[in-house]
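retry 2 of 3: previous attempt timed out while embedding iron/sulfur cluster. Reduced batch size to 1 and resubmitted. Inputs unchanged:
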Amino acid sequence: MNAVKQPIKFVHKLCDWYRANRRDLPFRENPDPYRILVSELMLQQTQMDTVIPYYMRFIEQFPNVASLAAASPESVLKAWEGLGYYRRARYLHQTAQTIMHKHNGVFPKTVSALKQLPGIGNYTAGAIASIAFNLPVPAVDGNVIRVMSRVLAEDCDFSQRKNVQQLEVLLEQLIQHDRPSDFTQALMELGALVCQKKPRCERCPVNAHCLAYANNEMMRYPHMPAKAQKTKLSYYVFLIGNSEQGYVFQKRPEDGLLAGLLQLPQYAGPFQTACKLLEEDLGISIVKTESLFLVHHVFTHIIWDMQVIHTIITDDASLTLHTLDNLPGTLSKAHRKILERLEK
Ligand code: SF4
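retry 2 succeeded.
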């Protein structure tokens, strides 16, 4: 891996720029490890503008580790509702409980202990250690990879852990030259505000150190290997009920994709098999079905194609119907889309 030109100057220019230009973000007001953890997990798959109101509400409802650890899983998922990728909320809840039960309510301060907590990997451990504890530990996320691959004119494949590790070693040396907390946030902030996909190099505080800029090859980095094709899965989704009285919902299994969330009854085809499974699971008899519309939902690695079927059944008083206002849990975003489409 290439070296940074004049590394000490690079670090000071970067950190000075950060201190003068950083955004006032709510989790920067009081960078305690709990707040950094909540913000970092929320930001992992979600844009900053979307995260901020969720973060504010979450911290108001669960202001510290103890309050989150004592909450019910349902109330944590409810507070997360709409952010998607609910595994993050489960990990956050489990981490709070682990800190209360195993660490007497005190966040561990070493990277190796942080990485033992549920859902905390190299990046999140580095972010907490450097931002909250001011320890010289790097945190490499997509923003940092974009900035550093350009500064170094490095076109290796950063989806490979060994290349990220090399970058971590280099950043570990750089971070020693200023406040670790500022250095980590400065790299992230530069990636978010200046070294964006289309970089604004003329206003970049470290353009004199940037090899990609010197060679006018900024768009060549970071090297992006071709993404694997997403797997398409097709389902039938059965609408039993109506918008006034509500619909029948099922709870998904406690592990796997969308674990424990609510959904409308959903089965893979062929259609006759899906109908039979629905009848067996709910103990009902289908009288009539009508195909309504198709809804797509894209996950990280898969796409769901959901054919929505309006379903009339023989009267069955044992079925409980719920509207969106009185759901007994958190509805998956994929199926919320279906109900929103019905309301249009
Ligand atoms: S000079 Fe341009 S490409 Fe280089 S770090 Fe700055 S913004 Fe990014």
